[in-house]
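Note on ligand handling. Small-molecule inputs were canonicalized before submission; formal charges were left as drawn, and no protonation-state enumeration was performed. Where a ligand contained multiple stereocentres, the stereochemistry in the source SMILES was retained. For zinc ion, this procedure yielded the string shown in the input block below.
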Amino acid sequence: MQPGDLAGFVADLRQHGLRVTPQRRAIWQVFAEPGCAHLTADEVFGHARAYLPEVSRATVYNTLGEFVRVGLLRVVEGFGPALYDPNLDPTHQHFRCQRCGQLYDVHVAGAPVLELVEPGFAISRVQITVEGRCPECRS
Ligand SMILES: [Zn+2]
Ligand SMILES: [Zn+2]
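Structure output:
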């Protein structure tokens, strides 16, 4: 589902027994804006107020948690505060440009199957964070 796909959003919420409220709709709309692919909860709050001035910070935080639980968003960690990401493609990882700070969705080619040197751990998820310079900052 694409961010901003309201029909899919409504269907997903109903499937999980959640009502489509103006708050949930406003928060979902934020992720359809250009440049809103990876946002902190506070950034979502700032944008959501443009749609719904009375929305509270607590509602935004709770709703983001709900969206992660029902599979509308995923959480990206490792770049400071948690970022909410509507790109659910499980093969995508993140590249942060150290010059402009932009976070890009990237795919890692030739990644080896990771094994831990320490015994006894079971890996359920690997998040790769890559840093460097983006194509724009290199040119
Ligand atoms: Zn850059
Ligand atoms: Zn992403």
